[in-house]
């Protein structure tokens, strides 16, 4: 089985995919080999759906939600491509396919600011800068320092989910206290989802923290629609291993 929380967002996810295609259209044919490979990546599939849930939860418009889901999907794709180059010396070699990999990753990264402007979220640039620093630190820990998998996951994936929730909270105008709870909720939720498919024992700790943080958040923000609730309940149940691409 896969996560069921995406069941009512098929139209939104389709629109995110269309926006993703449109923003990368000039290089789409050249990107086909990367797109085929990344389709099997768990985070690439989960992140847009989680972004939609996080933005719906705080009552943001569908237009903003779709734009930001595309933004986070694009950011992850650019970093995933850069991650194919394992070390700096390798990237300096005269190897045309490898140099293209670096260039295409840089091109996509360069689209991020434009997407931020189009989403009316340029004031969130500091949040994205901090996130990128964390991701890069995680890649250094992974490839240069042979760091622990959980630390790498926290830096490279956890920071993505935390930033999804933080930016949603900022755009929704949450006060400082609630915003920090929401950001921490996103971090723990993301870690729980990622670990569910590879380290289920450690996922339980993050699920417990997620449930506690959701209770604290809900006590502060009374929403009729609680799309996060279904996802959190689903995380609490045993999940079988699946092909990530089959979930959406």
3D architecture notes:
The protein is mainly α and 248 residues long. The chain has 11 helices and no strands. It has helices spanning 10-23, 28-38, 42-57, 62-82, 88-92, 96-118, 125-143, 149-171, 176-196, 200-220, 227-235. Helix 1 crosses helix 4 (62-82). The longest helix has 23 residues, at 96-118. It is globular. The termini are close together. 35% of the residues are buried.
Please tally the helical runs, counting DSSP H or I stretches of 4 or more residues: 11
Give the strand content: under 5%
Unreliable residue stretches: 88-95
Order of helices and strands: HHHHHHHHHHH
Largest sheet at a glance?
Answer: none
Classification by helices and strands:
mainly alpha
Could you tell me the radius of gyration in angstroms?
Answer: 18 Å
Structure summary, number of beta strands: 0
Q: Helical content, roughly?
A: over 70%
Mean pLDDT: 83
Gross morphology is globular
Distance between the termini: 11 Å
